[in-house]
Automatic annotation (TrEMBL):
Pfam families listed in its UniProt record: Orn_Arg_deC_N (PF02784), Orn_DAP_Arg_deC (PF00278)
Active site (UniProt): 346 (proton donor)
GO molecular function, one term: pyridoxal phosphate binding
Binding site for substrate: 280, 316, 320, 347, 375
EC number of the protein: 4.1.1.20
Every Orn/DAP/Arg decarboxylase 2 N-terminal domain range: 39-283
CDD domains: PLPDE_III_DapDC
GO BP annotations, alphabetical order: lysine biosynthetic process via diaminopimelate
Name this protein carries in UniProt: Diaminopimelate decarboxylase
Top class in the EC scheme: lyase
Length: 421
């Protein structure tokens, strides 16, 4: 098994930093998420270091994991935020991210959300369509405000990642085709309440190879030259996020230094400030989902390891056939068996892995699903009236619950029977 930084075995028991996962599970019923403070901090600092030679603003993509503790840790290190909703703006501000480090992405920014962002004077709107541009102009000029914008261009580049998280192909809903964007910049420059400051691109998530970034960055560089010739003053290039992480033992995604060097090679001559929006590569490999075996069930062809975490807690395997390493929290045998690791939800898709060779396990044993720090907890639901898994943060030998488990009553009370029943 390939362990993650600050997640290791000590005396055959998995530890996050210096805390035994088995000890935590005595205190906090499974399933729960558990993150390493130090790993998050180191990943952020590695970005800072990688981009140190370039004028860069690192805007953490809040959607990857929006817990206030994580946002506040990143804010304390100087991070900005890439947000996609009013809710995420509120989360970022509340965690201490200054408005002048917030970039607002997303294809469906509503009137209310734009007004909210304008009222806080955020750093930049990443505009994804002409009607959005017009609405921002209308709302900003009505209040004598200026919205600083970049237009998200769609370069029609294949990101070589899962189709559901590819965003830079022409059939995707994101951005404005780069071939059409020149006229949209011309239009933007004519609008009241709009200051054109940059160009934005984001071609997808979990990219494991730098070549698609290179294609996209080169297209953007050429486009920025055209815009400058047209008289626009482009001072920002937002290169989005998307750098992949290792999920499987033999994955070798590019590192942050190589990625930063590539940005410099393709875009450095333009003397613009670089905005980068990493999500997964900051938090993905800093967290695990801890679960208990409920039953081991022998079928006709298969053996099912039924655990107490489900697709409602971690949807990535069901949604993208994503691979996550699964490993016992306590290593006490060399004997292995093949298991389909499944959850309790009443769907066949509630499967974490098929025919996975694991050490022999039995009821009540603890397992950890690795690489769950990004797009884990944030994508969870209460489907089957299961409670959201709590989140724990560990630093050194201390740990704290950073999102507590609701009660069933909290969940049920949200429903209202009409008074006219
Ligand atoms: C606009 C934008 N920026 C940044 C990100 C963060 O991506 P990742 O978590 O892959 O770094 C995303 C998600 O793919 C996104 O849609
Ligand atoms: N939810 C996706 C990533 C989406 C990125 C959002 N733009 C995942 O789990 O891999």
């Amino acid at each position: 098994m390939k362990t993650q930084a600050h997640i290791s075995y000590q005396d055959n028991t998995m530890h996050v930093e210096k805390v035994s996962v088995a000890a935590m599970a005595k205190d906090i019923p499974t399933p729960f998420y558990c993150y390493s403070y130090t790993a998050i901090k180191e990943n952020y600092l590695a970005y800072q270091q990688a981009f140190a030679e370039q004028d860069t603003l690192i805007c953490y993509a809040v959607k990857a994991n929006s817990n206030q503790a994580i946002l506040s840790l990143l804010a304390s290190l100087g991070a900005g935020a890439d947000v996609v909703s009013e809710g995420e703006i509120r989360r970022a501000l509340q965690a201490g991210v200054p408005a002048n480090k917030i970039v607002f992405s997303g294809v469906a920014k509503t009137r209310k959300e734009i007004a909210y962002a304008l009222s806080h004077n955020i750093f930049q709107f990443n505009v994804e369509s002409e009607p959005e541009l017009q609405l921002i102009s209308e709302l900003a000029s009505a209040q004598n405000l200026t919205a600083c914008i970049s237009i998200r261009v769609n370069p029609n580049v294949c990101a070589n990642t899962h189709a559901k998280i590819t965003t830079g192909k022409s059939e995707n809903k994101f951005g404005i085709p780069i071939t059409k964007a020149r006229s949209v910049y011309h239009f933007a420059a004519s609008l009241p309440g709009i200051k054109v400051q940059g160009v934005d691109v984001h071609i997808g998530s979990q990219l494991t190879d730098l070549a698609p970034f290179e294609q996209a960055f080169n297209k953007v560089a050429e486009f920025v030259d055209t815009l400058e010739e047209d008289g626009h003053d482009i001072s920002i290039i937002d290169i989005g996020g998307g750098l992949g992480i290792d999920y499987a033992e033999d994955d070798t995604p590019p590192n942050k230094d190589a990625y930063a060097k590539l940005a410099k090679k393709c875009l450095g001559h333009l003397n613009c400030k670089i905005v980068v929006e990493p999500g997964r590569s900051i938090v993905g490999n800093t967290g695990i989902l801890v679960s208990s075996v409920v039953y081991v069930k022998k079928g006709e062809e298969r053996q099912f390891l039924i655990i107490d975490a489900g697709m409602n807690d971690l949807i990535r395997p069901s949604m993208y056939d994503a691979y996550h390493q699964i490993t016992p929290v306590i290593r006490n045998t060399n004997e292995t068996a093949l298991y389909d690791v499944v959850g309790p939800v009443c769907e066949t898709g509630d499967t974490f892995s098929k025919n996975r060779e694991l050490p022999v396990l039995q009821s009540d044993d603890l397992v950890a699903i690795l690489s769950c720090g990004a797009y884990g907890s944030v994508m969870s639901s209460t489907y089957n009236t299961r409670l959201f898994a709590p989140e724990i943060m560990v630093k050194d030998e201390q740990y704290s619950v950073i999102r507590s488990r609701q009660s069933y009553q909290d969940v049920i009370e949200q429903d209202v029977i009409p008074p006219w029943w």
